[in-house]
Amino acid sequence: QVQLRQSGGGTVQVGESLRLSCTASTDILSFNGVGWYRQASGDKRTFVGTITKDGSAYYGTGMSGRFTVSRDNEKNTVYLEMRDLETSDTAVYYCNAVGGTLSRVDYWGEGTLVTVSS
After folding, report:
1. Closest CA to 22 of 3, 1, 4
2. How is residue 89 annotated by DSSP?
3. Quick one: CA dihedral 69, 53, 77, 49, positive or negative?
4. Which pLDDT score, from 0 to 100, does residue 52 have?
5. Residue 87 region, left (φ>0) first, then alpha (ψ -120 to 50), else beta?
6. How many CB atoms lie within 10 A of CB 40?
7. What radius of gyration do the chain's Cα atoms show?
8. Do residues 77 and 22 make contact, with C-beta atoms less than 8 angstroms apart?
9. CA distance to 15, 37, 85, 107, 108, per residue, from 33 (Å)
10. Mean pLDDT across 105-110
C-alpha cells in the first residue's frame, strides 16, 4: 500500500515563505509524477505543480512564479517551495502521486493546512 506522508504546513504572514514535504513509502521514481494540489474552503481542488519521472516540472495556471516543485530521490521526497505568500494561498495542500501503466492510478497524501494571515 503506497503511503504519502506530508509535513510542513502551518500559519505564516503575507510575504513569507513555506516549504511542504511529501515522502513516499516507496521509490519516488516508481511514479510517473508526484506533485501538489490545493483546495481552499468552498472551492474545488486545483492543480499546483508536479515533477515528472524525468525531472521536468509543470505548474498550474498562475503557479509558476512563486511556487517550485523539487525532488530528493534519496529521501523519496517531493517538496513544494512557496514564496511571497498571499492570503489567497490559504488552503489545504495535498500531495499527489500518479502511478499506473495501462491506466492512471492516483495516490493522495492526507493534506496539510497552510494559512496565510495579513
Report:
1. 4
2. G
3. positive
4. 97
5. alpha
6. 13
7. 14
8. yes
9. 29, 13, 25, 11, 12
10. 96
